[in-house]
Amino acid sequence: MVEVEKEANKVPRALLIGEPGNDLQELKGLVLTLGMDIIQRLTLNRMEVHPQYGMGTGKAQEINELAHQIEADCIIFDFNLEPRKQRNWEELTGLSCFDRQEVIIRIFASRAQTREATLQVDLARLQYSLPRLAHMNKDFNRQRGGAFGAKGSGETQLELDQRQIREKISAIKHELAEVELNRQTQRKQRGKIPSCALVGYTNAGKSSLLNALTGSEAFVENKLFATLDPLTRKLPLNDSAGTLITDTVGFISNLPHHLIDAFKSTLEEACDADLLLLVLDASDPNAEFQYDTVCDVLDEIGASSNPRLILLNKIDKGDENGMLTTLRHRFPDAICVSAKDQTGFLDLKDKIYELLYGEIANYVIPVSQNILITELRKAGCIQSEEWLDDGVHITARATGRLLALISPFVRD
User: Over the stretch 113-122, which tens digit does the pLDDT of each residue have?
Assistant: First the structure.
């Protein structure tokens, strides 16, 4: 009984395989987040176009021997492993073999808390597993049994299971469509308050920033994909104006398309935001690469045209690797902040206020335009207001429709 319990609690040991030039640091972080032990990392010298294993049979056999020599429980590839190649690898090694996509899906499954997140993860998992059913059970090609006249449709078990998964995918998509409608209703109920979305690479410190700025208690952990569900909180900018800030799921390089599709309702928070707060970890040597990855994902989800403000986070860690200096040179308009020390928050709020509410200007509005003055008050745009004989002298910020309405009354 004791040996059985020890076996059940055993931490899986993984052998990581990467493409040429890949140091496997990102995959290492993903696997550690999943709770596995990494016993060895192997970067290939070259990749061959081979239909059986994605590399030569000699190299595949070498990896097989290495995996058994170091007593690995699984082999994880940092590149896309097609279903047929995955089946061939598992038949060759007798071990569980999968790629980074499955690692990410497993992490998402362990993080899902709300009904929406669970639905999104289930959808991604089913879409990923559908073409891989054949390698999961060798008996799937058998037809259903039974007495004469009760054998059913004559479909193979594989065909039956594939049909069942397609039906589940359709049902989940229907539920997620309802979730999307609910989100749209919530956005309408928020009124005319401008919104911001925290976007960035996973583990860049977005949730910590949300907590420090708004006093919320979003879940924070120094692991990849600690946040899956969007959380919205209000950030006051002054006595009358404020904005809604939403924390979104973190991005990562080579994010599977079915994950982007599954988390569409979550990622739409970034598409609908009036301003994107793009958070970079200024202490990470790979920050520039991560910035490019985030921009690519924003392009994919249709948020490339949204105004954005770059935040260089974690400046409290110093600049030992020179990355902060490099990022400041590349992004001279970026705001340097620290969620830990709350450094740079005043500059950040002023910049958000300017970008959301427009540049400040002086106006003289006739008393007859009282409705316009009321709209400016509701929007929190007015800095000062004085009623004089020639009209109402107002110092205010305005953008969009309000700016168009108030422009005829501008005073030099």
Answer: 778 778 888 8
